[in-house]
Every structure is written in C-alpha cells, then in structure tokens.
Design brief:
heterodimer; A: alpha+beta; Alpha-Beta Plaits; 2 domains; 4-stranded antiparallel β-sheet; elongated; B: alpha/beta; Rossmann fold; 3 domains; 6-stranded parallel β-sheet; globular; acetolactate synthase regulator activity (chain A); transferase (chain A); AHAS_ACT (chain A); amino-acid biosynthesis (chain A); ACT-like_dom_sf (chain A)
Chain lengths: 163, 572
C-alpha cells in the first residue's frame, strides 16, 4: 500500500543522507521525497512516499525513528490528510492546440505561467493522481518537459506534527 | 577555566569519561592527537599492527567488561581499515567509540592525501556518527559519542576529527559536560506495565513454555534476573549463540543453544512450544530457519530495548519495549505476588517430553582411536580450565564446536562475532580481554584459515606481553565452507582447501612466543596441560584435527526448527 510518511528531522549536515541511506540499505522503496527547512530553523520537514506491506511500513517507521536525527514522524495515511504535489510542464502549443490546452488547464485548475509562440509552461498543484490525469488529458506527445516536486502532506483537522 | 588545544581537549575528555585503554595506529591526520596522548599517562594506548585489529580489541574489551571500547586511527586507509571491525560491533550491538583523524576541514572534498568520507563510508554500519566542526565542540561531541554508544541498544559511534580541529596552538576553554541531552534520542527506561502484566498472565497459563534469551541479556546485564525468573518458573531455557553464558549451561533447565547448529532438544522444544518468552533476542535467520514454518503453535512475548527488533521477522503477540533488566525485575515481582502458579501437571508432562528428546540426542559425536576430533579438544579445554576461561573464537566450524562443547556458566566469557561472522576476530578480541583480565585464562579458539586474517597481531602480543593461548584447530581446510560444499555441492571443494600453510610453530617462535604442535590423540591432554601451565607465555597450539568432521546438529535449509541433520546420515 502507498503511504505518506512525514518526518521532523534535525536540520544538520548528513541527516538527509542517513534517511536516504536507510531506504536503500534495507531495500525499501522511495517513490517521492521532499525536504525543506521549517519555521524552526533547527528542524527540517521531510515527506516520503513509499509502498510496502503493513509489516514493511511498520519497520520503515521504526527504523526511521531509530535514526538519532529523526525527532518525530507520522504516517499521514493512517488518518485523514491533505496531499499536494506541484508540477511544472512545458507543452508544445501551436495553432489550434493553444486553445485546447488552455481549456484543459482551466479544467484542472492549473495556470499557464510562461508563454512563447510555440510553448506553454503550465503550473499545476494537486494530489499525484490529478497530476497524472492532466498529463494523460493533454497527451504525452505534446509534453516537452515535466518537473514534479514530490508529495507534501499534512494531517486534516487539529492534529499537528510539531515538537 | 582551563585553556586547552583541541587535541588536549580530546584526550582530557577521554580521561574524564574514564577511558582506560585506547587501541590504535597513528598517521598524519591524527598526529596532533597522538602528541597530546604522549604528554599524559592516564589513558593507555595500545599500538596494533592493523587498524581492523584495533577495533576487534576494543570490541573484545567491551564484551568482557561491559564498558565501551575506544579506537583511535588516522584518516583515509586508517579509517577504512576499521570498517569490518565496526560492522562486526554493529551487528552484535557492542558499545564502542571510533575516533578517526580527517584531513583539515579546508581540504575536505578536494581529494586530499589520505582523505576518505568516513562519515559516508561508515554510515550503514554505525549506530551514529559525528563530525567535529569547531574545536570547542570536542568535549560535547565526545560525551555524546559515549552516551549514544552505551545507552539503549548499544553500538559503535564514529567521530570524524579534521586535523585543524586539533591544532596545538589554538586553545579553548575546557569543561567536560556532565550530561548530554538529545531531544530526538530517548531510549526506554522501563517496559509498559500493562504489557508486562499481560505477559505474566500468559506465562502462568502456558502448558509448553520456553524461554529464548539472546545477547541482549548479557548487554543489558540481566543474567541475574533471568536466572532467578527461570528458576522460579521452572521453565526450560535456551539461548542464542550471542546469549551463551546468560544462564548457566550446566543447569538442568538449560537446553543448550538453538538454531542452525543448536541442540536437538532446544530446537525441538522451540518448535513444539505453546509460548515463547523471547528476551533480548532478534529472531534472526540462523535461529528461525524458514520463518513461515517457525514454531506453529507458539504465542510470543518479546522483550527488547529496540522496538525495531520486535516483529521484524516473527510477529510478537505481546511486545515489550524496555531494558531487559528493568522488565525482568518487574516480571519477577509480579510472579512472586501472583496467586496463580504455572500448571504443575502440564509442566511435568512437558519436562518428561523434553527429557525424552535429550536422551534421543543430547550432544554427541563419534570418536576415533587415532584421529583427534575437534570436539574433544574443546571438551578437554573446558575440563582443564573448569569452564571458567574467557573464550574468543573466529568464524567457522571451530566456532560452532567451541560454542557447543565449552560449557559457560557465566556471561561475558564467550566472545565471538555472531552477527557479521568476521574471520580474524578471535586473536585481537582475546588480546582486548587479556589486557584487562591478566589473571584469567584467555583462549582464542581458531582455525588455520581465520587465524591468518589477523596473525600480524602476534607482534602486538609481544610488545604488550599478552599471554593468550591460541588453539588452532587445524583441519587444513576452510572447514565450514567445505562442509557446505559436501552437503550442497556434491563435495566440489572450490577454493576451500589451503595449500602452503605456514609452519605455525616457527611463526610463533619468530615473534618470541611458544609454539606447540599436537598431532597424536594420546598427547592431547598432557600437552594441553603443559600449555596451560605456561601462564606468562603466549602459546600457539597447532592441533591437527579430523579433516572430514562436520558440525551437527544442522538445520535443514528452508525447513522448520525441528528439521535437522544429526550426523552425515541421520535426518529428522
């Protein structure tokens, strides 16, 4: 099953490599990984999406917790949560394609953030499935370049991941 | 406050930490530190002949004393040579701090002479690693390193020290921190009371219980509590290879150790049990055999300081995270207070069955009138040392024979590389033990393959006068490899045979030690007696043993715990 694990990590050199190393060392999957400092400059927040059986996921969270620099973590998929991923796509846009792409972008509530005579650059945010859906809708033949941020997530309601 | 250079602060920190010995080898990036070491006499440095041996020495010291070992090496090759030793300690959860020199911080990343990213290289095999970024951090980093290494589930910690952190003429205020606090590291200090209560209720209701104890009992210094609880309950007990000595081997409740080369009765009891109380053990593949066939009728209580060890390979019904000594203490008081007692009738029937299994096999091997069997060497050594020696081993058949036939009644006396299986571990580990236990008999049981992996340490033994006894079970082959080739590869002995062995007697003598060769069975006892009588000499005993012997019992691959070969021809 796909899981989103959110981690508060000491913002120190080498901490990220320990997390990434753990996944390869123990043969766990990483599908996406995002990391950035938080409002508390001593902490980074890291979000990793992974897949595995319940047993594997339990081991992943336990092994992550064992890393000295991991302060706290939560498996967001255990409760209601919001997940978002940002995507920037460069699309071939000439002639009649231009209007068609514009319409599709509107339907997916994206924005065209850069324009040339032959290219649109589109920005889109949403869960990973929505981003996949957009690529499918515009057709891969017109896609020149895709960059995705990886998943970020947060729990719904009053639950917070903090110290 | 005192002003000290980084190098002096480092050595002072070791003094303040109470470190008696460090094992190491100097080199460019560590020279400021070695100079600081020279100008004091509280911390004693042992100069090895290869950095790997320094780590095994520290490891042997730690296993025998329960205190963290300390290693000091230079950057680059000095540091990378420690990796096998560090991985050995990591797999067996041995507390240790490895101090590595590093090129100056201004040179890091420039492929400088003897530069290696030791933080990166060591990462998968350490509990944690730390680098010094400013000289004034040194006392805190050292305190943290020992704290992390020796608390919770212990393990090795590497400290990377760039040369410019130890410059002699830059001085800083020195104060050794009494405590360190790490917001992200809080090992459990006691088990969950509700879970412990639940476990005790299960123990009282069990009909075919078994206690399965591991190295965690020794690391957690809980042999006393374990022994008391086991005797109070009257349950059979087995332990892992790492747990040898946690419960007296000569006691009638003890079944011997379990797993791949464990006793018939221990494996049978595990397989047929209805309740397993696992304590400081980790259900590794050399114990469980095929996990899907593991002990089908048993419910499992699992006590461990490391939550990640619980339900990693075998699911626990009642997990208890906590230090084994504290948890066992709580269990003991609950058992004492409890109105319920284990069902005496069920337990008697269980013991009757166990005695039948014991009678069926026990530990046995076939003797021969003229060939020395490796097992009889071990039995003889056990007899001649009253089972009280510290025994280190290398890895292979001799290791299994030593573990099977030397009866340990005390913890911390059986010292081997159980998890990583590191050949070359035995001699340096024995040296680390002998250094702090000069009055005790220290035996290194080895083979002609393993001993050659760190044989250069005979020189260190000479320098520091370390009269260990090296018992070389010489079968002129890599015995365990050969056994597997006999069993699984139709006896195609690919590279398991060693030609051109050295004359070990002359070799030992060339280092200034004594060499004794034993080839005839009738000489075994008398010569071993002579060897043990040479208290102040290192004696290399080269014993020619049966070249065709196999280690049994041996679990059948991919079977359950009860599927075993009992000899070359008997399979159950």
């Amino acid at each position: 099953m796909r899981r989103i694990i959110s981690v508060l990590l000491e913002n120190e050199p080498g901490a990220l490599s320990r997390v990434v190393g753990l996944f390869s060392q123990r043969n766990y999957n990483i599908e996406t990984l995002t990391v950035a400092p938080t409002e508390d400059e001593t902490l980074s927040r890291l979000t990793v999406t992974t897949t595995g059986s319940d047993k594997v996921i339990e081991q992943i969270t336990k092994q992550l917790n064992k890393l000295i620099e991991v302060v706290k973590l939560v498996d967001l998929t255990e409760g209601a949560h919001i997940e978002r991923e940002l995507m920037l796509v460069k699309l071939k846009a000439t002639g009649s394609q231009r209007a068609e792409i514009k319409r599709t972008v509107d339907i997916f509530r994206g924005q065209i953030v850069d324009v040339t005579s032959s290219v649109y650059t589109v920005q889109l945010a949403g869960d990973s499935e929505k981003l996949d859906g957009f690529i499918q809708a515009v057709g891969t033949s017109g896609v020149l370049e895709v960059v995705r941020s990886g998943v970020s997530g947060i729990a719904r309601g009053e639950k917070v991941l903090s110290l | 406050m005192e002003l000290l250079s980084g190098a002096d602060m480092l050595i002072r920190s070791l003094q303040d930490e109470g470190i008696e010995y460090i094992y190491g080898y100097p080199g460019g990036a560590a020279l400021h530190i070695y100079d600081a070491l020279f100008r004091q006499d509280k911390v004693k440095h042992i100069l090895v002949r290869h950095e790997q041996a320094a780590v095994h020495m520290a490891d042997g010291y730690a296993r025998a004393t329960g205190k963290p070992g300390t290693v000091l090496v230079t950057s680059g090759p000095g540091a990378t040579n420690t990796i096998t030793g560090i991985a050995t300690a990591f797999m067996d959860s041995i507390p240790m701090v490895v101090l590595c020199g590093q090129v100056a911080s201004t040179l890091i990343g420039e492929d400088a002479f003897q530069e290696t990213d030791m933080i990166g290289v060591s990462r998968p095999v350490v509990k944690h690693n730390l680098s010094v970024r400013h000289p004034d951090e040194i006392p805190e980093v050292i305190r943290k390193a020992y704290y992390i290494a020796s608390t919770g589930r212990p393990g090795p910690v590497v400290v990377d020290i760039p040369k410019d952190m130890t410059t002699p003429n830059e001085r800083y205020e020195y104060a050794y921190p009494k405590k360190v606090k790490l917001r992200s590291y809080n090992p459990a200090i006691r088990g969950h009371a509700g879970q412990i209560k639940k476990a005790v209720d299960m123990l009282m209701a069990a009909r075919r219980p078994v206690i399965y104890a591991g190295g965690g009992v020794i690391l957690g210094k809980a042999s006393g509590q374990l022994t008391e609880l086991t005797r109070m309950l009257g349950f059979p007990i087995t332990n892992t290879l790492m747990g040898i000595g946690c419960y007296p081997a000569s006691d009638k409740q003890h079944l011997g150790w379990l797993g791949m080369h464990g006793t018939y009765e221990a494996n049978m009891v595990m397989h047929h049990s209805d309740l397993i109380l696992a304590i400081g053990a980790r259900f590794d593949d050399r114990v469980t055999n095929a996990t899907e066939k593991f002990c089908p009728g048993a419910r499992i209580i699992h006590i461990d300081i490391d939550p990640a060890s619980i339900s990693k390979t075998i699911d626990a019904d009642v997990p208890i995270v906590g230090p084994v000594d504290a948890v066992l203490k709580e269990m003991l008081s609950l058992v004492k207070e409890s109105k319920d007692k284990p069902d005496a009738e069920a337990l008697a029937a269980w013991w009757k069955q166990i005695e039948e299994w014991r009678a069926f096999h026990g530990m046995r091997y076939e003797t021969s009138p003229d060939v020395i069997k490796p097992q009889e060497v071990i039995e003889m050594l056990c007899k001649l040392t009253n089972g009280e020696a510290f025994v280190t081993s290398d890895v292979g058949q001799h290791q299994m024979f030593a573990a099977q036939y030397y009866k340990f009644d005390k913890p911390n006396r059986w010292i081997n590389s159980g998890g990583l299986g590191t050949m070359g571990f035995g001699l340096p580990a024995a040296m680390g033990v002998k250094l702090t236990h000069p009055e005790d008999e220290v035996l290194c049981i080895t083979g002609e393959g393993s001993i050659q992996m760190n044989i250069q340490e005979l020189s260190t033994c000479k320098q520091y006068d370390l009269p260990v006894k090296i018992i070389n079970l010489n079968n002129q082959a890599l015995g365990m490899v050969k056994q597997w080739q006999d069993m699984n590869y139709e006896s195609r002995h690919s590279q398991s045979y060693m030609e051109s062995l050295p004359d070990f007697i002359k070799l030992a003598e060339s280092y200034g030690h004594v060499g004794v060769k034993i080839e005839r069975k009738e000489d075994l006892e008398s010569k071993l007696r002579e060897v043990l009588a040479m208290k102040d000499k290192l004696v290399f005993v080269d014993i020619y043993v049966d070249r065709f012997e196999h280690v049994y019992p041996m679990q059948v691959a991919r079977g359950s715990m009860k599927d075993m070969w009992l000899s070359k021809t008997e399979r159950v």
